[in-house]
Design brief:
Structural class of chain A: mainly beta
Order of helices and strands of chain A: EEEEEEEEEEE
Radius of gyration of chain B: 14 Å
Shape of chain B: globular
Shape of chain A: globular
Order of helices and strands of chain B: EEEEEEEEEEEE
Structural class of chain B: mainly beta
Strand content of chain B: over 45%
Number of strands of chain A: 11
Radius of gyration of chain A: 13 Å
Number of strands of chain B: 12
Distance between the termini of chain B: 41 Å
Distance between the termini of chain A: 36 Å
Largest sheet of chain A: 7 strands, mixed
Oligomer: heterodimer
Largest sheet of chain B: 6 strands, mixed
Helix content of chain B: under 10%
Strand content of chain A: over 45%
Chain lengths: 111, 115
Amino acid sequence: NAGVTQTPKFRVLKTGQSMTLLCAQDMNHEYMYWYRQDPGMGLRLIHYSVGEGTTAKGEVPDGYNVSRLKKQNFLLGLESAAPSQTSVYFCASSLRGDAQFFGPGTRLTVL
Amino acid sequence: AQSVTQPDIHITVSEGASLELRCNYSYGATPYLFWYVQSPGQGLQLLLKYFSGDTLVQGIKGFEAEFKRSQSSFNLRKPSVHWSDAAEYFCAVGLRSGGYNKLIFGAGTRLAVHP
């Protein structure tokens, strides 16, 4: 039982490049979330999903897109990366939308 | 607007000393309350949660937290800190918003432990 996994762990992009972050959970959770963590700001919600095939915007959705084609996977895409998107990205999942379980994070640097 | 405040950005304690990390929230109703811990380079691990009932909640690693409605607080405590407790601690409020439970995090408190 791996819990929540994220790939890749690290990535460096140039401004304007695109990439996709993958989150996978093996706990059969309905809810999945993408956060970004920046120094002194805690975690901020980017997008979330309340079930397969559904997605919705969180606090800071601009510049990101998501997809939840399978219940166990939640993808976060950056179509045209900007330096302001340099951050650590965390995925989380929860069974009923209560306690959330987090992945190990992806450290993204945009040059 | 809902918010979570952790007044202490950094705290340093000696190993074996007691610990209290403060958390205050702003929300009209009784929210769900959580404490998470993050070790360097790691994800967040759930320490404990409060949904309802007994206001003193026990968690993992010897931590406990007390919900005080009158003070809108949910402070985290540990009677005797171990060096391995050095980490960053996040308080979070869960509230119902648009059909899902949204978590609002505080900015975190970084704990250092002196030997």
